[in-house]
Structure formats: structure tokens, C-alpha cells
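Q: Joint fold for the lines below.
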Amino acid sequence: MAIEVRIPTILRTYTDGAKSVEGTGGSLSELIDDLEGNHPGIKGRLVEDKDGSVDLRRFVNVYVNDEDVRFIGGLDAPLSDGDQVVVLPAVAGGAR
Amino acid sequence: MLTLSQEIYDAIVAHARRDHPDEACGVVAGPEGSDRAERFVPMVNAAGSPTFYEFDSTELLALYKDMDARDEEPVVVYHSHTATEAYPSRTDIGLASEPHAHYVLVSTREHGNSPGPVEFRSYRIIDGVVTEEEVTITTGEKSTP
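A: Joint structure:
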């Protein structure tokens, strides 16, 4: 068993067009490192350096079993086999 | 080119007027790969702001799961500018993440909540490059192939 990760259109350039890929990890940050191994470049689209530590990008939403990870520990959110992770870029913008 | 029915055009404009002076936002979904904007889905602007819009993260997930189940994609992503022209801002360009979508901007700066003409323009935004496109409004019965 592994963790299914749904990939948004804009990031499918990193997954050869695949809408979903599989990964492993006990936390979201471990999963992202695992994904980076198979899909180089994807990590930089999901996380960024914030004040010396790594955090999820402000305009990227990640959900574990339909929960926004921001409410369940962010990059430390625990994962187990069989979980479903969905990545969705924010739909946002503004006049400035 | 973006082709829209009069009904959906009117629904987008009505939403923009209703939410003025805050920005209104939403999508028009359609069958994947079809480029047909068919299902109007107004969204709540979680930012509740005259200068910014963002779909609520929980509603965003629900929307994408729903589109997925229907084999749809966002054919149009729309939002309003309430004090500036209907042209993508730097923020709009930086955050545009649907390469297949038509980005529609409506400006309510002239008439606000009142009836009256609005600016209604459509763009492709791909890798930071903005290309304006023609908008064609169709009326009457849907033609069935």
C-alpha cells in the first residue's frame, strides 16, 4: 500500500501528465521528499523557505483525506498507507 | 476565443454587481477538453475584500472533487475588479494556475451595484504571459450536434 497523491493540471509537467501518483512517508514533509525523488522539481512548487524554515507555499492547498493540512499540522501532518492526498493551487488574485 | 451563452454571461455580471464593492469570483465548468463553458458555479470570496479574492480552501476541494466526478474542468475562472480596469493584475498573473482556463475579468468600477454596462474581458494566462481573446455571446437554443 502507498499514499495516493492527486496532482493538479499545472504540476503534471512533473509527473509525465499523470493525474495521480503514489508516494510514501510518515508525514507530509516525508511524502514531499519522496515525491521529489521520483518527480524532480515538484518539491519547489509545493514548499518554500520562510524565515529559515521550510513551509507550504501560501497559495498551494494540500488536503489529507479531505482535511486541509493547515489544520492538522501542516508539513508535520501524519500520514499512513492508504491515505489520499490532494494538491490544489489556490484560486486567487486581486486588483493589485 | 471564449464562447459563452447569454445566460452565463448575465449570471457572471449579476454576481459581480451583487458583490460590489467586494470582488466576486467563481468558475464555469465544462466537459474536460471540450472548451464548452456550461455549468455556472459562483464561489464565495473567502477574502471578502475589494482588492483580493480567494476561494475558500474547503469549498475549493469540494468544487474540484465535484468536477472530477463529472469529468469536468474549469473552462472559465472569473473574478471582478471593483475599482480598476478588467485586466489581470500582477497578482492575478502570478497566481493563475489553470493553463486550460479562460480567465474572465469583469469591472464594476463604473456602475457598481447598479445596472449599466460593465467591462467584460477574457484572457489566457500561461506561464506569466497574458493574451487577451475575443468573447462571443451566443443566444437562443443550444444547438445539438
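Q: Anything notable?
A: The interface with chain B takes residues 8-10, 59, 61, 63, 66, 68, 70, 86, 88-96 of chain A (CB under 8 Å). The first helix of chain A runs from residue 28 to 38.
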